[in-house]
Amino acid sequence: MPKKKVIHIIQSLDNGGCENMLLRMLPLLSDGFEHGILTLREPGELAPRFTEKGIPVTTINWGGFFDFPGYRRLLSETRLLAPDCIITYLFHADMIGRLFLQPALGWRMPHGNSMPIVPFLRTTYNHQKYLVARILEWLTRPFVRQYLANSEAVKDFYTEHLGVQPEKITVIPNGIDIDYFDSIIPDKALRESLGIKSDDFIVICVANLHPNKGHRYLLQAFEAVYKKHPETYLLIVGDGVERAHLKNQIHGYASKNNIAFLGRRTDVPELLKISDCFILPTLFEGQSNALLEAMGSGLPVITTDIPENRSLVENDKTGFLVPLKSWKKIVEITIALIADKELRKKSGRTGCRFLEENFSLKSSANSFSQFLKNL
Length: 375
Hints:
Blueprint: E1 4-10, H1 17-25, E2 33-39, H2 47-52, E3 57-59, H3 68-81, E4 85-89, H4 90-104, E5 117-121, H5 131-140, E6 147-149, H6 152-161, E7 169-171, H7 178-182, H8 188-193, E8 201-206, H9 215-228, E9 232-237, H10 243-249, E10 259-263, H11 268-273, E11 277-280, H12 289-296, E12 301-304, H13 307-310, E13 320-322, H14 327-339, H15 341-358, H16 361-374
C-alpha cells in the first residue's frame, strides 16, 4: 500500500517553537506517511536537520503578497509533489493555503473530496498588534473545513472570539521527549564561556524578541532582583524586532553587565541545563515549546497566568503563575527561588513529572498520525 504524501507549508524553518515541534514530530510519523516541506521565503537554519532525517525541503523564494510569480512557483511545485493533503503553519502559510491553494488545486481525491488543506493553529493573536491577523482569520474561516490546534486554549480562543465551530478543531498538543533532556549533562565549560561562576544563579528566557513575549517586564524584574542578589545573571535567548528597544531599556540599569542577549542558539537544551530558573512573562501564547522544554529540563518556571499556560503550569506546584505585566510578582518569586534550593528542585521535579505523564512526544505523534490517516 503506497504511503500517504503529506506536504507541510511554512514561512521558513528558522529556529522557532513551531519549527522545532515539526523537527521532533515528523520523524515519528514515517509509518504510512511520506513527508515534505515547502518553505515560502527561505529554507531557514533548521532545514539541513530536516533533510538529514529524510524529510526533503523545497523553497519557493516567495517575495510577499504581491509576488505573483511566487504564487505560480508555489502552485507548480505543489502540483509536482502531488500530495494527498497539506498542513499549513503560521499566518502567511495559513492565508495562502486557504485563499490561494484551496481554490487553485482543481484535482479531486480518489474518495471524491477536494484536497484537504488544514491550518495548524499555533497561537491566539490575543494582542492589539495582531488585530489585522485576527480580522483576516475571522473573514476567512468559512474557507476552512478542518483545523488543528496545539492547545485547548487556542481552540477556545478561535471558537469564542473568531466564531469557528468547535467540531472543526482537533487539538494535538506539542509533545516533549523527557528522556532526551534527561540525557543532557550540565556543562561547566558552557557556564565558564559565558563568564558565569559555578555558584552564580542563572535566570534564562527562551523566546523570540517580539512585543507579546513580555521581555520588558522580565528586564524590570531582573533589575530589582540584581540589586538584592548581584550574583544573578540573565540569559536572553532569541532574536527579533524588539532587540534594539530592549537593549536601550537596560542602558542605565545596574544589572546591564549581567544580562546577555545570546541571539538565536542551537544549544538551547544545554543552556537550560546550566540554568537555575526559567521565566516567560508572555502576554499570549499557543502552547509554548520553550516552556515545555524548560519544564522537561527540570527547571522551576515562572510564567503568566493566561489560559494558554494554565494547561502546563499549576501555580505553586508545577511552576509559578504571575499576573500579566506584573514584574513585581516575578521579583518576589525569583528571590524566593534563589533563597531556597529545595523549592527549586521540588518545583522542577513536579513540573517534569507532569509533562512526562500528560505531554509525551509519543502520545502527540500518535494523535497526529491518527488525524492524518482519517483525512
